[in-house]
């Protein structure tokens, strides 16, 4: 496998009126060509910030990138550090080599421009297509994402589409310029399960067809199970576990991941009457972390957990976890 | 303590008593045209002829796609929206026949909890004041009694009584939902409509709140109508589930029947779309993908409202609406084809 993106030691803080929000503490991960990486985690754990920062979509201030690199291997022969690019540098990549899909398509699309023009103009800009070619490509693409009567709908505005159809348009936008990566931030959260299933299937098909790496941010572990090659579990601003999907569900290693899996209802329903919940709640990000951020809620906490921040360690092929405790063997991990 | 109408506490022998009975409930919203001389040009048939019973101490789940009429059903039952027609009973009291004054006396017995836990709490009031409010309004006791009851309620929902002096913004989403629950419990209700009460919460917190709902039901004998998008959560918490489509109930049965033997083609497709958190199973299952989109409730299709998307529809399905009836014991269904097969499994 070859890397398409490599994020290293990303630290982001928000300097707000009330104090400093430690949004991301040392986030490192790789994205491979053509794979689907799911990012899961509670609200506020830093899923969106970690991705928006790469595309320079965070408001700065209050956001400040305090540390980190994000090497993108798809912009030419040499890798580029996305975080170091200037405004024109990133705008060549954003919407071009890196596309994105947001939860709220209505606010992400331009409300006063027809969807056809929105897609055509971006292909003209990023791919240098002529007007006529851009239009043909756009119609083909709209047809491909399942917009009935694509040629007629070319001249429609975003509000003239239903929620599910709008999300299909967003997918077309994100994939119009032959991207290497598409970042999808909760793209199906607002949709009904039946529509969600259609959108997930469509994304999977297109990804295979065009060989795109997809980062899929979600809190739905069911959706993740169906589509992700690998999963990154975020907790309080840092990845706590990264593993292949099959491995993560069969063999979760971090106490938080284990807790999450147990908190899900089984598909059968009422008989197994109680869910196993994780006590407590996520920590206040206003305080600078000095120890494991899960220690307050973790059933395995021991003295070391309150003294150090656990680093990522390999526990298997393609499986890393940030925890001092070996849950499987019920003992602290050796020298980590 | 309270003077409002309240039935005897349910004991174990009352298990099969009906708490809520809904008969042919309809709620249509008029569509009007013109501002000054407005005239009705149509109606959104948000809830169109639904009937069901909820037993004492039972949780009836309601699922269905956005806009199918779940919230409207909940509100119409509580008379927060005046039903267009149909009857609703709370035990033997016909709610739909009460005048405003009688209804006000009955209110404490029926409560509602919403998804939007933040907006429903007044940001300028302390938690104590928020929870006390319904008791103050209904004059259920002296200030000291109410204060004691607030502490009791906080403890009941798993909050620290010392936090009574704090304000809503100082709490997390899950804690705010606990505050809402405490407020809803203040007047000792029998019946609570829970409208997406966990949808805005994280998975790990959802489990806490769902457990709380179940514990409270066990302790207080509460009856719930539980509305949610997440079918697996609904199945977990409910005893029986109603599946709605375009303002009507397509199928209503026990959770077990729903997962083992769903009869309605709409239920089958809905169940097949719910993602299973298990990569092996999720990747190897067959989905029934529905064509097209949900029609508008202002112009529902003739005949069976599902027929234009139904994978097994026959010509006659477009002619008349199938009767909603108990096709086999404890299994209610509205589908022509089940009639044909005497209720045996219809497969898509
Ligand atoms: N503009 C901002 N100002 C201050 N803090 C912010 C801002 N944007 C994000 N944050 C904080 O950064 C942290 C990470 O936010 P982020 O949006 O990445 O969370 P998330 O994991 O995407 O959550 P969700 O599931 O709710 O979308 C949160 O604690 C959030 O409060
Ligand atoms: N006050 C109103 N006036 C007009 N139409 C309404 C009103 N309230 C609801 N509706 C319509 O009635 C239908 C049912 O709405 P309802 O809110 O009950 O759906 P729901 O099943 O709760 O959906 P969701 O899952 O999105 O909450 C929808 O088409 C909605 O647009
Ligand atoms: S490092 Fe310690 S507190 Fe943190 S998750 Fe592991 S065992 Fe729990
Ligand atoms: Mg987010
Ligand atoms: Mg609703």
How would you portray this structure in words?
The complex is a heterodimer of chains A (336) and B (348). In chain A, 31% of the residues lie in helices and 25% in strands. Chain A has 336 residues and is α/β, with parallel strands linked by helices. Chain A has an eight-stranded mixed beta sheet with strand order 6-7-8-3-9-10-12-11, with helices on both faces. In chain B, 30% of the residues lie in helices and 23% in strands. The N and C termini of chain B lie far apart (56 Å). Residues 1-14 of chain B have low confidence and may be disordered. The structure holds adenosine-5'-triphosphate (2 copies), iron/sulfur cluster and magnesium ion (2 copies). The site of one magnesium ion has 3 residues of chain A, from helix 1. One adenosine-5'-triphosphate (ATP) binds at residues 29, 44, 46, 64, 66-72, 297 of chain B.
The geometry of chain B reads as globular
Largest sheet of chain A: 8 strands, mixed
- Summed over residues and divided by their number, the pLDDT of chain B gives a mean of 86
Enumerate how many helices of chain B there are, as a single number.
11
Largest interface here, residues on each chain?
A-B, 46 and 46 residues
Question: Assembly type of the shown chains?
Answer: heterodimer
What would the average pLDDT of chain A be, to the nearest integer? 89
Secondary structure elements and pairings:
The complex is a heterodimer of chains A (336) and B (348).
Chain A: E1 3-16, E2 19-32, E3 36-40, H1 47-54, E4 63-72, E5 80-81, H2 87-93, E6 98-102, H3 105-108, H4 115-127, H5 131-144, H6 150-153, H7 163-175, E7 181-185, H8 193-210, E8 213-217, H9 221-227, E9 230-235, E10 238-244, H10 245-250, H11 255-263, E11 313-316, E12 319-321, E13 325-326, E14 331-332
Helix pairs in contact in A: 4-5, 7-8
Chain B: E1 18-33, E2 39-55, E3 59-63, H1 70-77, E4 85-90, E5 93-94, H2 100-106, E6 110-113, H3 127-137, H4 143-156, H5 173-185, E7 191-195, H6 203-220, E8 223-227, H7 231-237, E9 240-245, E10 248-254, H8 255-260, H9 265-273, H10 279-284, E11 325-328, E12 331-333, H11 336-340
Parallel strand pairs in B: 3-8, 3-9, 6-7, 7-8
Antiparallel strand pairs in B: 1-2, 1-4, 4-5, 9-10, 10-12, 11-12
Helix pairs in contact in B: 3-4, 3-5, 4-5
Bound molecules: adenosine-5'-triphosphate (2 copies), iron/sulfur cluster and magnesium ion (2 copies).
């Amino acid at each position: 496998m070859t890397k398409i993106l490599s994020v290293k030691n990303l630290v982001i803080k928000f300097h707000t009126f009330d104090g400093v929000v430690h949004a991301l503490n040392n986030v490192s991960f790789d994205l491979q060509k053509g794979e689907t990486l799911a990012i899961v985690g509670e609200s506020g754990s830093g899923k969106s910030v970690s991705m928006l920062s790469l595309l320079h979509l965070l408001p700065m201030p209050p956001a400040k990138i305090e540390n980190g690199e994000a090497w993108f291997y798809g912009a030419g022969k040499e890798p580029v550090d996305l975080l170091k690019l200037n405004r024109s540098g990133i705008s060549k990549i954003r919407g071009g080599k890196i596309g994105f899909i947001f939860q709220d398509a209505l606010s992400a699309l331009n409300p006063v421009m027809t969807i056809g023009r929105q897609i055509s103009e971006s292909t003209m800009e990023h791919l240098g297509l002529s007007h006529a070619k851009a239009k043909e490509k756009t119609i083909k693409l709209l047809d491909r994402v399942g917009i009935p009567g694509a040629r007629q709908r070319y001249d429609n505005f975003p509000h003239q589409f239903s929620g599910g159809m709008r999300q299909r348009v967003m997918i077309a936008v994100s994939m119009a310029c032959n991207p290497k990566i598409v970042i999808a931030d909760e793209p199906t959260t607002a949709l009904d399960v039946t529509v969600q299933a259609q959108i997930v299937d469509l994304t999977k098909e297109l990804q295979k067809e065009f060989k795109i790496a997809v980062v899929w941010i979600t809190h739905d572990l069911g959706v993740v199970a169906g589509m992700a090659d690998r999963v990154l579990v975020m907790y309080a601003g840092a990845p706590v576990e990264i593993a292949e999907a099959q491995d993560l569900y069969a063999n979760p290693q971090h106490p938080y991941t284990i807790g999450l899996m147990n908190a899900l209802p089984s598909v059968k329903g009422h008989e197994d009457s109680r869910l196993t919940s994780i006590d407590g709640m996520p920590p206040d990000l206003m305080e600078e972390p000095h120890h494991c951020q899960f220690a307050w809620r973790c059933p395995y906490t021991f003295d070391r957990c309150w003294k150090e921040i656990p680093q990522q360690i390999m526990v298997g092929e393609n499986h890393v976890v940030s925890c001092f405790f070996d849950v499987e063997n019920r003992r602290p991990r050796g020298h980590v | 303590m309270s003077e409002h109408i309240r039935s005897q506490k349910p004991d174990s022998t009352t298990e099969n008593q009906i708490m809520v009975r809904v008969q042919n409930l309809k709620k249509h919203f008029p569509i009007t045209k013109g501002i000054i001389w407005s005239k009705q040009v149509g109606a959104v048939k948000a809830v169109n002829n639904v009937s069901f019973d909820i037993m004492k101490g039972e949780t009836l789940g309601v699922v269905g796609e956005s806009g199918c009429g779940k919230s409207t059903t909940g509100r119409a039952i509580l008379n927060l929206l005046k039903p267009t027609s149909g009857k609703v009973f709370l035990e033997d009291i016909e709610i739909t026949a009460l005048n405003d004054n009688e209804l006000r006396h009955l209110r404490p017995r029926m409560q509602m909890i919403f998804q939007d836990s933040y907006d429903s709490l007044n940001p300028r009031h302390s938690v104590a004041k928020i929870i006390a409010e319904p008791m103050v309004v209904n004059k259920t006791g002296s200030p000291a009694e109410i204060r004691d009851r607030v502490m009791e309620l906080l403890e009941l929902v798993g909050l620290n009584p010392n936090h009574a002096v704090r304000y809503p913004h100082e709490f997390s989403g899950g804690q705010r939902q606990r505050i809402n629950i405490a407020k809803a419990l203040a007047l000792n209700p029998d019946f609570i409509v829970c409208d997406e009460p966990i949808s805005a919460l994280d998975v790990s917190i959802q489990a806490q709140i769902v457990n709380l709902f179940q514990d409270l039901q066990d302790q207080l004998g509460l009856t719930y109508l539980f509305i949610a998008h997440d079918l697996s959560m609904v199945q977990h918490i409910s005893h029986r589930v109603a599946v709605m489509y375009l303002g009507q109930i397509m199928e209503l049965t026990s959770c077990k029947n729903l997962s083992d033997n769903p009869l309605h083609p709409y239920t089958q497709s809905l169940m097949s779309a719910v993602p299973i958190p298990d990569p092996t199973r999720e990747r190897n299952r067959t989905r029934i993908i529905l064509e097209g989109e949900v029609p508008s409730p202002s112009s529902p299709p003739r005949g069976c409202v599902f027929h234009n998307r139904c994978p097994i529809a026959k010509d006659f399905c477009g002619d008349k609406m199938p009767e909603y009836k108990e096709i086999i014991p404890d299994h209610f269904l509205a589908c022509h084809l089940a009639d044909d097969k005497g209720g045996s499994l219809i497969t898509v």
